[in-house]
Design a protein that fits this description.
Layout: H1 5-9, H2 16-22, H3 26-48, H4 64-92, H5 94-98, H6 109-143, H7 152-174, H8 186-226, H9 231-269, H10 280-309, H11 326-339, H12 348-371, H13 376-385, H14 387-391
Length: 392
């Protein structure tokens, strides 16, 4: 799981609350993390692989939103691999891990492994948070026709730049001036926890607002496309709204235990003695949420693919298939149109107005298709309700 307690545990003089959760059934906890991360990893890859009997979706053009969704899944996969590796070393080499607690030890490899593995997990999941925020921003900009593949470069710069900067800054403040003297006061720990949970809280607060505005803009687009709001368009808008709801539901389910656990542990840190009897229920709640985190944090990858694409099935198609080159279909349609010239000469203003309306309709269909990508029924219904489709 991804928690700033992983980096705090690397301090030999760690606080009592961190000691409580990290020493609670470590074998069981590492086994839970390995099992959950392995299941999520396999199912996520299965979801992303092409399936037999499914024709590839034909998008009008490449979508930045689809690229962001893929990058979110990649961050989850790599973060899950980090969890599996870290937990496997903890289970397989308990003596190696025990050297982390030595204050004046000469072996630097246990501490290096502790810090490196914790940073790897934290960095990738933090990047996943930033990518999820970029997805909400991009969805809104796509509907407003202010985004495209060119903006993906800006998203890369923002996501990886902020993730690396916050991670390095939090670690530097936590371990300043040295690894053996960290956690001597809250001035070391609090900045680290802020930089860790800042992107998570940003997604919890900002994404629902952006998704709500996007849904409102989608409704306006669908109404303005033909001047009426049909049942098909109402259903399509509802499906896009449900997709956003599923994304936020998965995020809240997977990460709310982290917020609850951190709140309980901070409360315990404020007490003179966390082993007092009146604090028994709080200690139990902290330990329960700690185990829940080990289950839900790695499962985010698979649950997100369900929210993005739905269940894609078990039948994997690994055969290479030839894809149609875009300009081949374009040239063939052009030849077909020019083979029999129209004998009627239309006025140029009619051609221009028709071209503008067709272009606007295409842009609207592209924006809606990007948001409903992965939903075959939505794409088919959108195509049938399009004026371009009806014109044929």
């Amino acid at each position: 799981m991804a928690s700033p307690r992983l980096e705090t545990y690397c301090c030999p003089n760690r606080d009592a609350a961190t000691q409580l959760v990290m020493h609670f059934q470590p074998e069981v906890f590492c086994g839970v993390c390995i099992g959950s991360a392995s299941i999520s990893l396999l199912l996520t890859i299965l979801q992303l692989l092409p399936k037999k009997g499914q024709s590839p979706r034909k998008m009008p053009k490449a979508s930045s939103s689809s690229t962001i969704l893929l990058l979110i899944s990649i961050c989850d996969i790599l973060g899950g691999l980090g969890m599996i590796f870290r937990s496997s070393v903890w289970l397989g080499f308990p003596g190696f891990i025990a050297n982390i607690s030595v204050v004046n030890g000469t072996d630097v490899w246990p501490s290096t492994f502790c810090v490196g593995s914790a940073m790897w997990i934290q960095l990738l999941y933090s990047a996943g948070f930033w990518w999820l925020f970029c997805y909400a921003v991009d969805s809104y900009l796509v509907v407003r026709r202010s985004a495209g593949l060119s903006t993906i470069v800006l998203y890369h710069m923002m996501t990886w730049g902020l993730a690396v900067m916050l991670c390095v800054e939090g670690i530097a403040l936590l371990y300043y001036p040295s690894l053996s003297s960290c956690e001597n006061g809250l001035e070391h720990a609090i900045p680290h926890y802020i930089t860790t949970y800042a992107p998570l809280l940003l997604v919890l607060v900002a994404n629902p607002i952006l998704f709500r505005r996007t849904v409102s803009a989608v409704a306006s687009l669908l109404k303005g496309r033909q001047g009426i709001y049909t049942e098909n368009e109402r259903r399509l808008g509802t499906e896009i709204q449900m997709r956003f709801f599923k994304i936020m539901l998965v995020f809240v389910i997977c990460w709310s235990p982290n917020i609850i656990n951190e709140t309980l542990l901070f409360y315990l840190e404020m007490q003179p003695d966390i082993n007092e009897m009146p604090l028994k229920n709080i200690r139990s709640a902290a330990l329960i949420t700690w185990i829940i985190m080990g289950v839900l944090n790695p499962m985010q990858g698979f649950l997100f693919t369900l929210a993005f694409y739905g269940w894609t099935g078990w039948r994997v198609d690994l055969k290479w298939r030839k894809r149609e080159i875009p300009w081949e279909s374009l040239s063939s349609s052009t030849v077909g149109e020019n083979a029999y010239p129209s004998p009627v000469n239309y006025p140029s203003n009619i051609h221009d107005s028709k071209k503008i309306s067709t272009t606007d309709s295409q842009q609207t269909d592209e924006a809606i298709s990007m948001l409903s990508e992965g939903n075959t029924s939505s794409d088919e219904r959108l195509t049938r309700s399009s004026p371009i489709y009806q014109g044929w």
